[in-house]
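Aim 2 progress update. The chain analyzed this quarter is reproduced below.
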Amino acid sequence: MCFSVVGALMAIFMAILCLVLVFCFGFVILRWNEVRYMMKGLPPGTMGWPVFGETTEFLKQGPNFMKIHRARYGSFFKSHILGCPTIVSMDPELNRYILMNEAKGLVPGYPQSMLDILGKCNIAAVHGSTHKYMRGALLSIISPALIRDQLLPKIDEFMKTHLSDWDNKVINIQDKTKEMAFLSSLKQIAGMESSSISQPFMTEFFKLVLGTLSLPIDFPGTNYSRGLQARNNIISILNELLEERRASQDTHLDMLGCLMGRDENRYKLSHEEIIDLIITIIYSGYETVSTTSMMAVKYLYDHPKVLDEIRKEHFAIRDRKKPEDPIDCNDLKSMRFTRAVIFETSRLATIVNGVLRKTTHDMELNGYLIPKGWRIYVYTREINYDPFLYHDPLTFNPWRWLGNSLESHSHFLIFGGGTRQCPGKELGIAEISTFLHYFVTRYRWEEVGGDELMKFPRVEAPNGLHIRVSSYSN
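Predicted structure tokens:
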């Protein structure tokens, strides 16, 4: 009996010793790699622990992680934070160069989970001539002419209905703007048929969104597994819709009608490309439109002078129109202050922390050697708060965007840059502007209180953001 206990203890001791040795060996190898990389001319920084790198610290500390590393290593440093060796760049001019030079070997480097769930034909996954072709197809259905003639009337009609019954209610503005962003996009894509597929589509879509930002482990119960299943269910819904459209002789004035109109559209997309493009359109606009709308409501409530100014702009528009008249493109052009509010909301809330690129070969960048296959994280959050670029950067001040051409500055990367600049920028601004028009002219509101806001890794209110709404005429 005594021997068996001793044997068991020895086995446990040996197992622990083996783990310690493996860990120490891995640590030594990692540190040797750092020395070897430094000899090759890699940027300063640290790779963290074996296997995990600095991912835990990054997710736990969020923006503070970046501030600490920037203070220690500068605006261009190496780390291991996204499941692979990563270069973090916070330099405005260098970030612009990285985003403008995809042809030189700086291609998209998005997480595998996102690429798997959005599909191999989505715009984030393709590059080169394929990306140019897919982007052309997307731009052909959100051109200024189509926004004016087809999309804006749908957006206006939807927003009027969506905001029609908020009087004397306590609402979760986070849920309402999420629902708004999804349903508005679906209506632009599928027109009249959107109402019949909206609920099953929306249920699966929310699962898909969670799956795109998860570890790519296809195990039952994981967000990744649920995301893949949600993608399959969405494909089934879209397959049925496409089959019905092909069997019909009707003309459809919506995005799907344009994509399927082979005689009119010079971009002849395959069935799979159409499906991936539809998923990408909804996904790319969903979080930016919903979160910017939610945070604009928050900032307007916190800054009464800004609210007064934006109300003046929108009531001036209503004074020029009959009560039932919709918003048109001329009205959008006149919403200069509203556009400034949207930009300032996006800057201060930092809806998008940055974008990822990947090197296709060893290359020199900023005087350092960047190995093939490394990710480059173009981190724009700190740029948004740089006092040398934005005076008093932590203050919500939409007036900073009026008259000084900040939108054209090289450090303006809120919507990306280069050939990957968000193609739906103006469409998204039109949606948010129309939402704000009907919201501020119809209602006044107050926060119920007690709602927590998180700004990293994504901007969200974990328990919702609740407001009590009443009619503005009361």
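Residues 27-34 have pLDDT under 50 and may be disordered. The longest helix spans residues 2-40. These observations will guide the mutagenesis experiments scheduled for the next reporting period.
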